[in-house]
UniProtKB/TrEMBL annotation:
GO cellular component: TIM23 mitochondrial import inner membrane translocase complex
Highest classification ranks of the organism: Eukaryota, Viridiplantae, Streptophyta, Embryophyta, Tracheophyta
Function: Essential component of the TIM23 complex, a complex that mediates the translocation of transit peptide-containing proteins across the mitochondrial inner membrane.
Organism: Asparagus officinalis
Compartments where found: Mitochondrion inner membrane
Family label: Belongs to the TIM50 family.
Keywords tagged on the record: Mitochondrion, Protein transport, Transit peptide, Translocation, Transport
Protein name per UniProt: Mitochondrial import inner membrane translocase subunit TIM50
Membrane association type: Single-pass membrane protein
Recorded superkingdom: Eukaryota
Length: 105
């Protein structure tokens, strides 16, 4: 396994996400890394597909620096945690809308 130096990409590191089964061990920039389980030819491995909602959100909202966003998921499976956070956000928005309607009467 060779170490990956993301600075060699000639890209702003605040905008780079490194997804790999060995991301944390093989990168000079672990703050840009998203670790996933290694693929072992399993038909039911959906690790990359499960990340799509998170990656779409990031692409749509374009955070100024992706590193604090990734840090907020440290110790969690990003795909699962993103879904949970999204559900909580939807729930809060629905509650706010309901409270808003109550006060408008």
């Amino acid at each position: 396994m060779t170490l990956k130096d993301l600075s060699k990409l000639n890209r702003d590191p605040s905008r780079v996400i490194y997804i790999s089964a060995h991301a944390l061990e093989s990168s000079f920039q672990p703050e840009n890394s998203v670790p996933i389980k290694p693929w072992k030819l399993e038909d039911d491995d959906t690790a990359l597909i499960d990340l799509i909602p998170f990656l779409e959100y990031v692409a749509l909202h374009r955070p100024a620096d992706i590193r604090p966003v990734l840090a907020s998921y440290q110790g969690h499976d990003i795909a699962r945690e993103f879904i949970e956070r999204s559900k909580e956000h939807q729930k809060r928005m629905q509650e706010q809308n309901q409270h808003g309607r109550f006060w408008q009467r």
